[in-house]
Design goal:
There is one protein chain. Helix content is 62%, strand content 0%. With 127 residues, it is mainly alpha-helical.
């Protein structure tokens, strides 16, 4: 299991790579020294909350996403969502997130079926 610093570092690297940026360009964009990015991405240094907020704002990613261990998450599912939403402008990302939140609220009100989903049923939900 990855430490919190490693998880945050991997997520910072993901944001940088998703935006096809060098460490130097990324550092300039968030206002830190370029030599700070490598150790940060490796989990050797911990970012301040202010740094995480700056990255979150600059790249339109939710702050909580830095704390999600992707090794635990379903990678293919996460990648698909990221591809669908990540390419949209910030205002559309916000709209999509709010829409998803409302859909989840509706689903929580719906009675659940007692049978677990099979692999085929899970795949159908993803489509």
């Amino acid at each position: 299991m990855a430490s919190l610093r490693q998880t945050v570092g991997l997520q910072i690297r993901r944001v940088r790579m998703d935006n096809a940026m060098t460490q130097q360009a990324f550092a300039r964009r968030i206002g830190v020294n370029a030599s700070y990015i490598g150790p940060l991405e490796k989990g050797q240094k911990a970012p301040s909350i202010a740094t995480l907020e700056k990255i979150s704002q600059e790249f339109s990613v939710p702050l909580f996403s830095f704390f999600v261990d992707e090794h635990i998450e379903n990678q293919a599912f996460s990648d698909r969502i990221r591809a669908l939403v990540g390419s949209r402008p910030a205002d559309e990302q916000d709209f999509l997130l709010k829409t998803l939140e409302e859909m989840v609220k509706l689903l929580r009100k719906r009675p659940r079926k007692s049978q677990p989903r099979t692999g085929a049923a899970q795949e159908a939900v993803r489509r």
